[in-house]
Write a structure and sequence with these properties.
CATH architecture: 3-Layer(aba) Sandwich
Structural class: alpha/beta
Number of strands: 7
CATH topology: Rossmann fold
Radius of gyration: 16 Å
Distance between the termini: 25 Å
Number of domains: 1
Order of helices and strands: EHEEHEHEHEHHE
CATH superfamily: NAD(P)-binding Rossmann-like Domain
Length: 198
């Protein structure tokens, strides 16, 4: 398959790129500052340009999304808007613009996270954005068939525990390799409207 991979140079994107490439897929790596194509998908105009440059693809995979982390009393309306734009709306727009640009039975795989169901202090913006993406996936699945859409919703990565482990007390962690396998399941499988929590 020809796969457009958003956030390909990040921690998760690198693991997903490695796994999908090893399975024989052709990967078009997209990043803001690195990769085969350099676009910022938080800008709808750049998303459109990215699709024009990429041409027809079989799958769109997203591993990117930025949100601010602050106590709720320190959050501003702009912070919440930034979270919605950076994690939810950018991915929603990948689908909105991508439906006419991917194969008839192509797929979208988006990224959410554990904070949609297990909130932490300072994580209200992430919880909001993740929840929005997950709700969108369920709703979009019934409209875009036979194209498919799923979301991967991991907890903290084992490889990132030294940086973020204290924010996720008692939640456990997941190896990047295991998360990459779930992306394979979404891309190569037949399910749609799923939120794969791990």
């Amino acid at each position: 398959m020809k796969i457009l991979l958003i956030g390909a140079t990040g921690t998760l994107g690198t693991a997903v790129h490695k796994e999908l490439s090893a399975r024989g897929h052709e990967i078009l790596a997209v990043g803001r500052t690195g990769g085969d194509l350099r676009y910022d998908v938080t800008d709808p105009a750049q998303t459109a340009a990215m699709y024009e440059c990429a041409g027809r693809v079989d799958a769109v995979v997203s591993t990117a999304g930025d949100v601010p982390f602050k106590p709720v009393t320190e959050m501003t309306p702009e912070d919440y808007l930034a979270a919605f734009q950076g994690k939810a709306l950018s991915q929603i727009d990948l689908v909105r613009q991508g439906v006419t640009r991917i194969a008839e039975r192509g797929s979208f795989t988006l990224i959410t996270g554990v904070l949609a169901r297990e909130p932490i202090p300072t994580g209200t913006a992430a919880s909001m954005a993740n929840g929005a993406v997950e709700a969108f996936v369920c709703a979009a699945a019934i409209e875009i068939a036979p194209q498919r859409i799923n979301a991967v919703s991991p907890t903290v990565f084992t490889e990132s525990l030294s940086y973020y482990g204290n924010y996720f007390p008692g939640m456990g962690s997941v190896d990047l390799a295991d998360v990459a396998q779930v992306y394979v399941r979404s891309v190569e499988g037949a399910q749609t409207g799923q939120v794969y929590a791990l």
